[in-house]
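Open question from group meeting: does this chain pack into something compact, or does most of it stay loose? Before anyone orders reagents, we agreed to write out a predicted structure and look at it together. Recording both the input and the output here so the notebook holds the full record.
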Amino acid sequence: MNEILISALLVIGSFFMLVAGLGMLRMPDLLLRMSCSTKAATIGVGTMLLALALYFENLGVATRALATICFIFLTAPVGAHRIGRIAYLVGVRLWEGTIKDELKGVYPADACLPFGQECLIPDMDAPEVGADIEKEAD
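Structure tokens returned:
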């Protein structure tokens, strides 16, 4: 029974990894490719690591596998989000079939300089520069 569960988890993980690879080849722009790879690969790696933990039947291996699964589930979406946001700010073109650009007009045009230069992304919650000086002058 244990071998059947392990085999099923490996097949499911392999399927999701295959879908992630196909998504990387088939999707038209960077943001869609990152979405495919992050979602499918995270689930694929998670199920394969779960199969590994069940196969070895060792508490140390299972603990490390579960810790790795938690780490991947926490960091992969955050990393993909950050890479996508910077790619958008740098000016990576969206797919021509994109219906709505929800970030258009949110950031100033000079928020991020061309590749290789520093991005100057303002903190949306911070007060404007010089606002505290104007208050003191009044």
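Observations to bring back to the group:
Confidence is low (pLDDT under 50) at residues 129-134.
The CA atoms of residues 29 and 95 lie 6 Å apart.
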